[in-house]
Design goal:
- The protein is about 10% helix and about 35% strand.
- It is built from one helix and eight strands.
- The protein has a four-stranded mixed sheet with strand order 1-7-4-3, with no helix packed on it.
- The longest helix is centred in the first third of the chain and has 14 residues, at about 5-15.
């Protein structure tokens, strides 16, 4: 590319970005001050920021989520003498990410627990922040866990 082409291109670009000169009305005897800009109505945010909670947030299945998918849990802890299992996993914030259901399949050798998450129907026209939070839920077993192995159904 030649210097002349670069110079011509720069000149065209510079002149096309320039603003048109302001036209002044004919001189008058009274000087005008510009009108103030129109008032803008501002609605303050009414929800106060919350401090991070201690430990995972307890949740219950909603049963009405959309775009449901399996989610892996990170921790499973037997509670109530092995008759229940407390699950912990990483998730998003509600209503954008909610626990839809928990599927439990028990055999004599293992207990497979699958978490299903999706989006709440209440999240329509909602902006969703992308932040990870820990959630927890507790599921009942038909029989105490005993020596059976806990398996994450989402890992299949």
């Amino acid at each position: 590319m030649t210097k002349a082409t670069l110079l011509a291109g720069s000149l065209v670009l510079a002149t096309s970005c320039a603003t048109a000169p302001a036209t002044r009305p004919a001189a008058s005897s009274s000087s005008r001050t510009p009108a103030p800009p129109p008032a803008v109505e501002v609605t303050p945010v009414t929800t106060a920021p919350t401090a991070p909670s201690e430990g995972p947030q307890p949740v219950k299945p909603t049963g009405n989520a959309i775009n449901v998918h399996k989610v892996r849990w990170t921790k499973a802890k037997p509670v109530s003498q092995g008759r229940k299992v407390q699950l912990t996993w990483w998730s998003g914030v509600a209503p954008c990410t909610v626990l839809d259901r928990v599927k439990v399949k028990e055999t004599s050798k293992k207990v497979t627990i699958t978490l299903y998450e999706g989006t709440s129907p209440k999240a329509k026209n909602t902006s969703c922040i992308m932040i990870a939070i820990q959630k927890t839920t507790t599921v009942k077993l038909k029989k105490a866990l005993g020596k059976r192995v806990l398996v994450d159904g989402a890992k299949r």
